[in-house]
């Protein structure tokens, strides 16, 4: 099957996986249905193409899962600034991205705590409002019963 039969994003994702060290091409073929010869061709083209390396999968780092971002933050946590910069450069990621992810990881529990606190406050307010409405309804029913 030719390249034109597959969406660009699909090919890029598959090529990124093909360039990983521990990937078995046959497994990708079974998962995607793309012909084995096409997969080998894509992989070889990618390896020969200037600027396309095993770090291609990092180019769309903003689309990573939370777990992948967290793992990257952990991998770089104990590196010096120079090592950190080199590592990011090797992976094709901007250090600023990783710093944002690190901040998000650090603040993750705070936002959950704030959300729970906010939810509890809103729930208390709704309960108070409900009690007021029930009292008002009972008062009006009593007044209606007295007039009728």
UniProtKB/TrEMBL annotation:
<dbReference type="Pfam" id="PF01527">
    <property type="entry name" value="HTH_Tnp_1"/>
</dbReference>
<dbReference type="GO" id="GO:0006313">
    <property type="term" value="P:DNA transposition"/>
</dbReference>
<dbReference type="GO" id="GO:0004803">
    <property type="term" value="F:transposase activity"/>
</dbReference>
<dbReference type="GO" id="GO:0003677">
    <property type="term" value="F:DNA binding"/>
</dbReference>
<dbReference type="InterPro" id="IPR009057">
    <property type="entry name" value="Homeodomain-like_sf"/>
</dbReference>
<feature type="compositionally biased region" description="Basic and acidic residues">
    <location>
        <begin position="111"/>
        <end position="148"/>
    </location>
</feature>
<dbReference type="InterPro" id="IPR002514">
    <property type="entry name" value="Transposase_8"/>
</dbReference>
<protein>
    <submittedName>
        <fullName>Transposase</fullName>
    </submittedName>
</protein>
<feature type="region of interest" description="Disordered">
    <location>
        <begin position="110"/>
        <end position="148"/>
    </location>
</feature>
